[in-house]
Automatic annotation (TrEMBL):
Protein name stated in the entry: 4-diphosphocytidyl-2-C-methyl-D-erythritol kinase
Lineage, opening ranks: Bacteria, Bacillati, Actinomycetota, Actinomycetes, Micrococcales
Family note: Belongs to the GHMP kinase family. IspE subfamily.
TM regions (residue ranges): none
Keyword Disulfide bond in record: no
Gene: ispE
């Protein structure tokens, strides 16, 4: 218990989505997870998490993308807030409102973003004043991507993705994200990856020296050449249309394309703002995809309204 007092007014936190510039997947571990080496980048598609004091946990949803998001205690934002209350030994509860813009089940870590936002918001609401690293240890128990979304920027993730260290990255990267009609279940994509690789030697994952060097120099063409995702064949195997979306986007001038995380969102890296608009128009007007989002990265992780995370 801390001596701090709970605020009575709402606390608002803006949290970004992520794209994996590189996702290397090792063999399955004894605990069922896979060891990963991944380079995350936080991008400018945001959910907003608002928290206010309440007698019991409450969750309400609004925004463009709420289909399939649980509106009960199963929501990752509620679970994160409850885990923080428990770890801090306090009895406070919160009403959590999510305004969702991040595609759901799209491989952009929307649920993890909301969990990161709930941790940062409740930390402020309850006057805990815990540093980010302490919040990150709770985050890591709840989901592999959550620690990264507390920090944001561009970072190397290891372990199952929950151990993050910042990566030196120059420049701003312009992205077009092609949204798919349905979602893909992350466990199903990993299972398909294991199935496709059965009988082959899968080495321990390592980040590519080439990508780290390209990010240091800020050369977008070099970065484009080094993007890669070991889950892509599995995502395409489960959702074959993704292969067509990738080909179409490349034919319309994207510098590179890859499935975002476990998919089914496809991420296109483009040369700049104009190229992003051109590609978006081409993909939607030709009917290749139903909807797109443009974003830039890197951006910071979970931010309190009007300032930093803690
Ligand atoms: P990741 O890339 O982290 O594997 P994702 O981006 O593919 O995840 P999410 O949008 O995080 O997928 O949603 C995955 C599932 O998590 C959803 O289908 C939903 O059932 C559940 N979920 C729980 N809480 C949330 C939340 N706050 N927002 C979105 N989904 C949530």
């Amino acid at each position: 218990m801390t001596g701090s007092t709970t605020r009575t007014t709402a606390v608002h936190v803006r949290v970004p989505a992520k794209v994996n510039l590189e996702l290397r997947v090792g063999p399955p571990r004894a605990d069922g997870f896979h060891s990963l080496a991944t380079i995350y980048q936080a991008v400018s598609l945001f959910d907003t998490v608002s928290v206010t004091p309440a007698e019991d946990w409450q969750i309400t949803l609004s925004g463009r993308t709420t289909e399939g998001v649980p509106a009960d205690a199963g929501n990752l934002a509620v679970r994160a807030a409850a885990a923080l209350a428990e770890a801090a030994g306090i009895r406070q509860r919160a009403a959590i409102r999510l305004t969702k813009e991040i595609p759901v089940a799209g491989g952009m870590a929307g649920g993890s973003a909301d969990a990161a936002g709930a941790l940062v918001g409740c930390n402020r609401l309850w006057g805990l004043d815990w540093p980010l690293d302490r919040l990150a240890s709770i985050a890591a128990e709840l989901g592999s991507d959550i620690p990264f979304l507390l920090h944001g920027g561009t970072a190397l993730g290891s372990g199952r993705g929950e151990q993050v260290v910042p990566v030196l990255a120059k420049g701003t990267y312009h992205w077009v994200f092609a949204l798919a009609d349905g979602g893909l279940s992350t466990p199903a994509v990993y299972a398909e990856c294991d199935r496709l690789r059965a009988g082959t030697h899968v080495p321990e994952p390592r980040p590519s020296v080439g990508l780290l060097g390209a990010l240091r120099s800020g050369d977008v063409l070099d970065v484009a050449e080094c993007l890669g995702n070991d889950l892509e064949p599995a995502a395409i195997s489960l959702a074959p249309k993704l292969g067509d979306v990738i080909e179409e986007g490349l034919s319309y001038g994207a510098l590179a394309a890859l499935v975002s995380g476990s998919g089914p969102t496809v991420a296109f890296l483009v040369a700049g703002r104009e190229a992003a608009i051109d590609l978006s128009v081409a993909l939607v007007s030709t009917g290749v995809v139903r909807d797109v989002r443009r974003a830039t990265g890197p951006v910071p992780g979970a931010q309190l309204d009007g300032g930093a995370a803690s």
